[in-house]
Amino acid sequence: MKKFAALLVAFALVSPAYAQKLNPAFAPKTTFQGTHPRPKVATVSPASKPVLLHTGKPITQDQKQQLMLSVTRATAPKIPAGAMRVQTPILAAANLLTPDQLYLNGVYIDALGARVNQFDGVLSFTPGGASYLILNITVKPSTAYTILMKVNIDGYVITSPNIPGGINISTSSALNQGTGVNAPQTFNTSKGENEFAYSFVANSAGNLQVYINSTDSFWSFESCEISSAAF
Question: Which CATH superfamily is domain 43-230 in?
Answer without folding.
Answer: Galactose-binding domain-like (2.60.120.260)
